[in-house]
Write a structure and sequence with these properties.
Elements (H helix, E strand, L loop, with lengths): L3 H9 L7 E5 L12 E2 L9 E2 L3 E4 L1 H5 L4 E8 L13 E5 L11 E4 L3 E4 L2 E4 L10 E2 L10 E3 L7 H9 L4 E5 L4 E6 L3 E2 L10 E2 L2 H10 L6 E5 L3 H14 L2 E5 L10 H7 L2 E6 L3 E2 L5 E5 L4 E5 L3 H19 L8 E5 L3 E2 L5 E10 L5 E5 L16 E5 L5 E2 L4 E6 L2
Parallel strand pairs: 5-6, 13-16, 13-17, 14-15, 17-21, 19-24, 22-25
Antiparallel strand pairs: 1-12, 2-11, 3-10, 4-6, 4-7, 5-9, 8-9, 18-20, 20-21, 22-28, 23-27, 24-25, 24-26, 26-28
Helix pairs in contact: 1-7, 4-7, 5-6
């Protein structure tokens, strides 16, 4: 049986390059940047005032001048005004460019303005105070966001600030989610006592939408020929097939045979893990990949995050993320010789540690339990007893 570590390596040996595309910058949240964003000028582009108040020449303060005639009032976006005499100042607003004839800003709170004159009420004044100097953040040509970054609202703001109306991003694979089984009915239907509503596909779709993907969903009934035809169609039209269910040893699990008939090479089937032991992975000659997850909701959810999303990040050249670890909150035992992915609720203690509280549920079919958890704690294959206070890697899904 394939180990978790081996399964990861085999999957990451099947990376793909789907190219790039240029999109309007405001449509790229969640996508992966395929070009660096450079500053097109210094940031800030001028000496920027950071407080409402008056702008003076510091030499006047040194000379003992504390009362100034207000020469002009300057708002953000105005052309800079100027003073001609040491006892003049400019009433100036936050965000305005600092005029060349002044070098220090004194807050409104520290002056008293009467009849066009400003009296400075404090002694502690420093040259250059209340200013954000030109180029203090970045210089013209500096990289603001590098290739491989996931585009966040902050990066959208960067793109807007440097006039990047379009961004080059990595193309995402075309993904189809396939569920199977005659026991499944549509969400808007009332199931019979022996039926359940389709949910796995929507769970997967929601997780993929968080990654900037918009997968399609189809359902295949338990009919061998229809199964073969539908999978053949998907292999011809999608880069990745994510199957949920129909890959175990049941009499009506027709998917493995259909994949074999359609020349999808099995890379592995069954992983020494719980949940998700029946996980199947393969590749077609045209480059399409098949991730066939077990039908149990928790198993599907774990395999999706552990394997597919890891593959997706590598395929899209997402900048490597630091691993997250948490402290096990209480003793836990797991006997079978399988790597266990324990559902946990994450909390922080006053010492700043991430604490993992086991929320075991009732097996891989207990999808309701997922709503009460934040992550899977990855417990190593070679252990059966796990003690409170031990640290293990976390696979977060919220």
């Amino acid at each position: 049986m394939t180990t978790v570590e081996e399964a990861e390596k085999l999957i990451l040996a099947q990376l793909r390059d789907y190219g790039t595309e240029s999109l309007p910058f405001e449509q790229t949240v969640g996508r992966i940047l395929a070009e660096p964003i450079h500053a097109d000028r210094d940031l800030p582009p001028f000496n920027r005032v950071t407080m409402d108040g008056i702008a003076v020449n510091y030499q006047s303060i040194i000379s003992g001048i504390l009362t100034f005639n207000i020469k002009a009032t300057q708002a953000a976006g105005d052309e800079p005004a100027a003073i001609a005499y040491p006892d003049e100042c400019i009433e100036i607003m936050t965000g305005a460019v600092l005029p060349a004839s002044v070098d220090t800003v004194i807050r409104y709170e520290d002056v008293e303005i009467t009849d066009g004159r400003a009296l400075v009420k404090i002694q502690d004044i420093k040259k250059g105070q209340n200013l954000h100097l030109q180029g203090a953040d970045k210089r013209n040509g500096d990289v603001l966001a590098s290739i491989g970054r996931r585009i966040t609202p902050a990066i959208i703001g960067l793109a807007a600030s440097v006039g990047k109306t379009h961004l080059l991003v990595k193309k995402s694979p075309q993904v189809v989610i396939i569920s199977s089984g005659d026991e499944l009915v549509d969400v808007d239907q009332t199931p019979a006592p022996y039926q359940i509503r389709k949910s796995n596909g929507y769970t997967i779709k929601g997780a993929l939408q968080k990654q900037g993907l918009e997968p399609d969903i189809i359902h295949i009934p338990d009919e061998p020929e229809i199964t073969r035809q539908q999978i053949q169609h998907c292999l011809q039209n999608y880069d990745v097939l994510l199957l949920s269910g129909g890959i175990s040893m049941g009499k009506f699990d027709y998917i493995p045979q259909a994949l074999e008939d359609l020349d999808v090479k099995k890379i592995f089937h069954k992983v020494a893990q719980r949940p998700g032991k029946p996980f199947w992975f393969g590749a077609h000659g045209n480059g399409s990949l098949v991730f066939a997850f077990p039908g149990n909701p928790v198993a599907t959810f774990m395999c999706l995050h552990k394997y597919f999303l890891n593959w997706l990040s590598a395929t899209l050249n997402l900048a490597e993320q630091s691993a997250v670890y948490a402290v096990l909150a209480k003793d836990f035992q797991f006997q079978p010789a399988l790597q266990y992915f324990l559902q946990v609720k994450l909390q922080s203690n006053p010492q700043g540690q991430l604490i993992a509280l086991p929320i075991e549920g009732n097996g891989s079919g207990d999808f309701a339990n997922l709503a009460d958890t934040d992550a899977f704690l990855e417990l190593p294959l070679e252990r059966t007893d796990f003690k409170a206070g031990e640290v293990y890697r976390v696979l977060r899904f919220v």
